[in-house]
Amino acid sequence: MPAIWSWLNKRRLERTRALPASFWHWERRCGFTCGADVTHNTDMTESELPEAGAPPETEEETGSLVFEQPLNERMRTFLRVDFLYNQALYHNEIASQWGSRAAMGSLIDILAITTRGDVRSDVLKELERHLATLSEFQSKPGVDPERLRTLVGNLQRLRGELMNAGSAFLQPLRDSEFLSAIKHRSAIPGGTCEFDLPDYYYWLAQSDEPRIRTFNQWLGMLRPLCDAIAELLWLTRQNGRTREEKAPAGLFHITFDRDTPYQLLRISLPISAGMYPEISGSHYRCSVRFLEWKGLTTRPTQTTADVPFILSCCG
Do 246 and 306 contact (CB within 8 A), yes or no? Predict the structure, then answer.
């Protein structure tokens, strides 16, 4: 456990060094870290340092893992689409038949998610909400006007691109007989073998350049939606109140203020802790159990030790 406390001290220093002083002045007075308190079975600490103004931390950068839990269905959908889109981009760049197969699987999953609801409308509503929130800061003292203009400009551009795409912007993908056949056969284990889909096999056998170019055209149709979702997730994470907490005997309870609708819960742990959180609950309350990792062949158990961690409640 002393190693974990040392990690927490290191993280505290990293957060304070991550941004220039002018930005801290703005954030503390009227930025994205403001929100209502949350209550727990033990008193919360006084530290309210905001997250660094950068994308979510990676293992290589901080030696930590960030576990996220969506607190409503809209945020759950956004996280899934963003995950699948990044996965498709990654595999498409591998420039191999297996890479294209993996990227195709992500594309099919995105189409399935967007078919179940009006994700575009949800994204536009969230963009409007953030724009309205940012507009309130224009007349407040201590605000960095250049940074504010940049944020507003990005959201307005993304809103314009998504609106210009139209409500039927994914219809060409849904109407494609080629993609529909792959989607249908993908529901069967091993259903996209060469004897099941000879046209798919033939397409995969083409040279890398035209195959990747075609896939990039498909991803281009998704880009207005997925770029907007990525920006919204970034803003949501930056709008988090970050605190150092401790889970007595590996158990932590949170009750949220109903007047402050949080959308995302983030828990940071050092990789060396040898455990992970199991989060359950809703936007009203959550329970977190810290389980000790004992390998793939042994069932994990809740730790009996007090676990220090970093908690972020994001609205």
Answer: yes
Instruction: State residue 314 phi and psi, 5-degree precision.
Output: -115, 135
* Pair 267, 67: CB distance under 8 Å: yes
What residue spans in the chain does CATH classification 2.60.440.10 cover? 2-72+240-314
200 CB neighbour count, 10 Å cutoff: 20
- Res. 61 pLDDT band, cuts 50 70 90: low
Q: Give the tokens for residue 146.
A: 């250049």
Amino acid at 8: L
Other Cβ atoms within 10 Å of 5 Cβ, number = 12
Q: CB–CB of 255/74 below 8 Å?
A: no
Range 75-235: architecture per CATH: Orthogonal Bundle (1.10)
Query: Which residues, in sequence order, are CB contacts of 180 under 8 Å at separation 6+?
Result: 174
List, by residue range, all CATH 1.10.3900.10 domains of the chain: 75-235
State how far Cα 282 lies from the chain centre. Answer: 17
The H or E element containing residue 91 is helix 73-92
pLDDT at 40 (0 to 100): 42
Cβ 104 vs Cβ 176: under 8 Å:
no
Q: What is the DSSP string of 139-194?
A: TSTT--HHHHHHHHHHHHHHHHHHHHH-TTTTHHHHH-HHHHHHHHHHTSTTTTST
Give residues with Cβ within 8 angstroms of 96, minimum separation 6: 208
Domain spanning 2-72+240-314, CATH architecture: Sandwich (2.60)
Mean pLDDT of 81-87: 97
- Has residue 41 got a pLDDT over 50? no
Q: Would you say residue 263 has pLDDT above 50?
A: yes
